[in-house]
Amino acid sequence: MDTTYKITLIAILAIVFLLCKGIYDERQYRRRLYKRLEETWGKPARQEYTYDIMENIKCYYNSISESNSIDDITCNDLNMDAVYGSINHTKTSIGEEYLYALLRRPCTDISILNERERVIKLISNAGSSERIKLEAALAGMGKLDKIPVYQYFEKAGNMESENKWYHICCGLALAVSMLLCFVKPAVFVLVSAIVIIYNVLSYYKSKAKLDSYIQIFAFITRAGRQSEEIANAGIAGLEKYQERLLKCASSLKKLNKNSWIISGGGMGGSIADSLMDYIRILFHIDLIKICSMADGLQKHRKELMGIFEIAGYIDSMVSIASFRAGLDSWCIPELDSTSGKKSINMEFVDLYHPLIEKPVKNSITTDRGILITGSNASGKSVFIKTVAVNAIFAQTIHTVLAKKYSSCFYHVYSSMALRDDIFSSESYYIVEIKSLKRILDRAAEADIPVLCFIDEVLRGTNTLERIASSSEILKQIAKLGAMCFAATHDLELAKILAGYYNNYHFEETVTEDNVIFDYKLRKGSTKTRNAIKLLNMTGYDKSVTLKAEEAAQYFLENGVWRT
């Protein structure tokens, strides 16, 4: 009796200790989390994006992309994955996937953008404690690097679960054998050891097959639990989102009952969590819960998608507010939704690129396309990418990196960083003309103007045909009511297209042994060239650069090349 009493007392004390330690660990975790959230406000949430992580983030966008979306050519030209990384301050996988889709789908409805702005302002203007409480609730949902959340939410209930009763029998066998150790220790200690070995091996075998589902079900339980915290974060003005989120979370309560069996309490590596891991392995309780959840998940698909949409939206708006907080200067775009194709005015002041650490800011006002000339490395390509990225920002995150930005709504396309397609045996020129054709087709059919960006149009062919063809293509783009920013080395185009495009240029200062760029945009076409000078500076033989300079001068004076 004394031995039984001592064992019981030790067990009670151990339980009390674990409970107290769990409460302490939870408080310490919360304290560290709140401090980290305060320190990282205005900073990107993720530092590295592997190929697999980016593919998972793109899953939601790939499912809902449409004709007005930023196509893959434009996305690649503008390095939009890196641009996305600079604005991604989300705290959840749902938010990451939602924000990426938002960035790739420019909005043409001013009311939707006004609502985004309203929510962003509510979050930005909220007190620090309310905002951090909301961020902490989102952070509790967490991120999954290895699986796309939307894909598993969308296919909820279609998984083939294992036999729940097999895992129940495994757990019961161990429990019974351990209890019988008090009756016949010599026999049942050995039996318990055998059952433990069998349960561990079968657990890991089953877990290997269900690993992605284990992760997603753990995420679902956290999503349901944290949705209530997100809804109760206390930021006024978000009531309609909070009510919908609570309704979805409430519908999942029965499904998520005893969710701690799968996901733990969120204490970030406490003793209680570690102990719980051993219990899961030995008694298969998380596998039993997963099999039960799989059986009832199909009927809750609507609620899961509701949580995805609402939590993803809120997390994205928090991310945009945080992105704004880290900027030196930004503005809310002034977008004209009434002009249609009648007017393609664009104005911006001190516009800059989000990925350049010390950017040179430029300004422009125009009511038609822009033709940009300039020497190599003078800043033409960077400038048109800057305009393109900010035009997308204006219609997605409602934030432009400038002192002022105004324009109509656009469909955005580019044709810049193209390459040969070795898989279809298409030359660079074929790839290029197909890329340009898609812009012309879209400009002809779209109900709002196309905003397009072309770097060195038709560079893949000879000078004569390039100038003849590119001038007509750029004319046609202008005639179709599109706004085109085109960068070129062909100064002839500046004269040919003077009636359709405004001319701007970048220039440099050339010294004896250096070329200095200021990256400032100037009106008119360029009068300078530096390609031969750059050959000289990089160590080419003097005879090569001297003869090249003489040949160029001869052509300028006579209009033909010396043979």
Structure notes:
This protein is of the alpha/beta class and 563 residues long. It folds into two domains: 2-325, no CATH class; 334-529, P-loop containing nucleotide triphosphate hydrolases (Rossmann fold), CATH 3.40.50. Helix content is 57%, strand content 10%. The strands form three sheets. It has a six-stranded mixed sheet, with helices on both faces. Helix 8 crosses helix 11. The mean pLDDT is 85.
What are the key terms here?
single chain; 563 residues; alpha/beta; Rossmann fold; 2 domains; 6-stranded mixed beta sheet; 4-stranded mixed beta sheet; 22 helices
Mean pLDDT: 85
Question: Main beta sheet, described?
Answer: 6 strands, mixed
As for the number of domains, it is 2
Work out the strand percent: 5-15%
| Shape, per Cα inertia axes | elongated
Class by alpha and beta content = alpha/beta
The protein's oligomeric status is: single chain
Question: Number of helical runs?
Answer: 22
Sheet with the most strands: spatial strand order: 6-7-8-4-9-12
Percentage of residues assigned to helices: 55-70%
> Rg to the nearest angstrom?
31 Å
Query: In whole angstroms, how far apart are the ends?
Result: 113 Å
Please tally the β strands and state the result.
Answer: 12
Low-confidence stretches: none
List the helices and strands and how they pair.
Blueprint: H1 2-40, H2 51-57, H3 59-64, H4 72-77, H5 80-87, H6 93-103, H7 110-125, H8 128-141, H9 149-154, H10 164-180, H11 185-231, H12 239-251, H13 260-263, H14 271-283, H15 285-296, H16 301-325, E1 334-336, E2 346-351, E3 362-366, E4 369-374, H17 380-394, E5 404-408, E6 411-415, H18 428-445, E7 450-455, H19 463-479, E8 483-488, H20 492-496, E9 501-506, E10 508-510, E11 515-517, E12 522-523, H21 531-537, H22 542-558
Parallel strand pairs: 1-5, 4-8, 4-9, 6-7, 7-8
Antiparallel strand pairs: 2-3, 2-5, 9-12, 10-11
Helix pairs in contact: 1-8, 6-16, 7-16, 8-11, 10-11, 10-15, 11-12, 11-15, 12-16, 21-22
